[in-house]
Design a protein that fits this description.
Two copies of one chain form a homodimer. By secondary structure, chain A is of the alpha/beta class. The first copy, chain A, is built from twelve helices and 15 strands.
Chain lengths: 367, 367
């Protein structure tokens, strides 16, 4: 099947667990957490072999849009859409589907978070090529699943049934974040994958799934899409987008579709065995980066100069300072111009609570 | 006995264990670690009821002298002596003894570190008044001992014999820093005090002890003292002081004197039960300050704003920043313009090793 691939990159999140580095106008995806390029730059760069830059879409918000455009100079302004109000993933990719359905009958869309790392780019591209082929072949939905390596309670899971083509399984159902007992059971049973949040489908399939399962939202998106490329687009977007249902692809489209049964649903899971990491916290960034560089003491310290003694597995970020780490382990310290975070590898997932507090106290300069 | 009391304050140390706050030109005694006044300002203030400001001597070095004078505006320039080269405590107080011996036959000198805290100032003054009386009464040396509260291996110990007047004991001998087993034994036996480094004696007694036990140094100090108040003083000091023996009062004067036997030596130990703390590290500062203010979680955080969650017994100093401490305990983090220290309460005594490293690497801006 002929397929024109369009990556849709979701870049509206805040990534509050990377506070104090991540801020409202400089969210996680706009930070160079791992290498010289920012997360969104890496996301675009690794997809460029599959689509020319003119086919990319980025969905973000008004706070972040200027910096997104600055970081992605090859994208035209109209390719970077600012949601007037975050409505979760279903309307975000749905809008692209309605815009493209009318313009390119061969359009296959891929939904990608903008803040994940992929260790093996070649393998990533190979899996995507396979997925694009499946998506182009009919009314299929393709989801990339990650083989679980631990009983993680922070992710959604995909339960799969029969193995279909080479690297793919038919999806039985999506499961919300489980408790620890369930997660351990999933791990034991073996036919469960983590939901990576990456999906593939044709514009046609996605638009008809929206019309079937979220008809009100589909109608609003069709109206907005009709004005794309005209001078009315911005106003129509602002007027109608906020009326869309605030719902994810998983709940709004996949769950009702999978209710049709494993065979009829035509949802396929591809194994994403390409070194995926969603960098959920300072701790997972630390783990990801030490796995690559394997420093002998497990410390990852950025400073103008460094001294460490009897210290291990610490993450310290203070690039403008001389950093000394003495007799301490498993600590995370991150410094910016106006803030200092002190936490532990074990509890770094609670960093988002700081941002919640700062929001509540209207300490807007700090978020 | 008539006694004119002259406090001699030793302010030549670096206090490297308070890096990165303490620096070559801003040593520990010049920092406001506990309250608004700096350590040396507190040292002077608490002694003022016993001596007018004109009777104070401060012995420091050329790096620190300008800041000492700035912090102690009531002292005349000649009262603040810069050692051309650090020669430990015996020459430092010995010089004052030789200068005063000729000028005031009633002079009693007290030797005081400039970087300790005293919790109970009234009790401190009462103990000193008693000590000054003993020192003025004859060829006596008075040392202030601290009742040990733990088997500390970081201090020298004073072994005492017979109880002499009310609050005093005759000293048997001084003991160097013990190992843990010895320290536990000292604690058990009960007739051991910690050496606080505070001594009292008449100028006459001290000068004759120097002449007896350190004759070469005594002769050099006498020559320097002869030029005090003349335009030659600075040059003579520079020329001769470095030739003095590099030796402490304890080793150079007390140890040989105590060899005469408990009765003949006339060394007396007064119990310094006035809430003494030498603030040997960030950890002891933390302990001292939380003992006073008893915050419920034991955190001591200075920041422009503070958020803490599931965090206890941490010391964080970043007064210009919003500080967030999440899910971490017993950590010490200190930030300055150019440096960031991350250590633990348990290992903060190793902070001095950072300064040693910086010295070796000639990273002079950081020390």
């Amino acid at each position: 099947m002929a397929a024109d691939f369009y990556p849709v990159i979701l870049a509206g999140g805040r990534g509050t667990r990377f506070w104090p580095l991540s801020r409202r106008k400089r969210a996680k995806q706009l930070l160079a957490l791992d290498g010289k390029q920012t997360m969104i730059q890496q996301t675009v760069a690794r997809l460029l072999p599959l689509a020319p830059s003119g086919r990319f879409w980025v969905v973000t918000n008004a706070d972040l849009r200027p910096e997104v455009l600055r970081q992605l100079p090859r994208l035209r302004a109209e390719q970077v859409i600012a949601e007037p109000l975050g409505r979760n993933t279903a309307p975000a990719i749905g809008l692209a589907a309605f815009i493209l359905k009318a313009r390119d009958p061969n359009a296959v869309l891929g939904l990608f978070p903008s803040d994940h790392v992929i260790g093996d780019r070649e393998r990533f591209l190979a899996v995507l090529r396979e997925g694009i082929e499946i998506a182009a072949a009919g009314e299929n939905i393709v989801v990339l699943g990650i083989q679980p390596s631990r009983a993680e309670t922070g992710y959604g899971y995909i339960e799969v049934g029969a193995r279909s083509p080479a690297n793919a399984w038919r999806v039985r159902r999506f499961t919300e974040k489980p408790n620890l007992e369930q997660a351990a059971e999933f791990l034991r049973r073996g036919n469960f994958f983590w939901n990576s949040g990456m999906f593939l489908w044709s514009a046609r399939t996605l638009a008809s799934a929206l019309t079937e399962h979220l008809p009100k939202t589909a109608s609003l998106l069709a109206q907005i899409a009709a004005d794309f490329g005209t001078k009315h687009f911005a106003a129509t977007l602002r007027r109608l987008y906020g009326k869309c249902e605030n719902i994810s692809v998983d709940y709004g489209l996949i769950e009702p579709r999978s209710a049709k049964g494993e065979q009829a649903a035509n949802i396929f899971c591809l194994r994403g065995d390409f070194g995926w990491n969603d960098l959920g916290s300072w701790t997972s960034l630390h783990e990801h980066r030490t796995a690559k560089s394997t420093p002998p003491d497990g410390n990852l310290i950025s400073g103008r100069g460094i001294f460490s003694l009897n210290a291990s597995r610490n993450y310290v970020h203070a690039p403008e300072k001389f950093v000394a780490v003495v007799g301490v382990s498993d600590v995370v310290v991150v410094e910016t111009d106006d803030a200092l975070l002190v936490t532990s590898r074990e509890n770094a997932q609670d960093v988002g609570k700081i941002v919640k507090y700062l929001d509540e106290k209207n300490l807007t300069k700090l978020v």
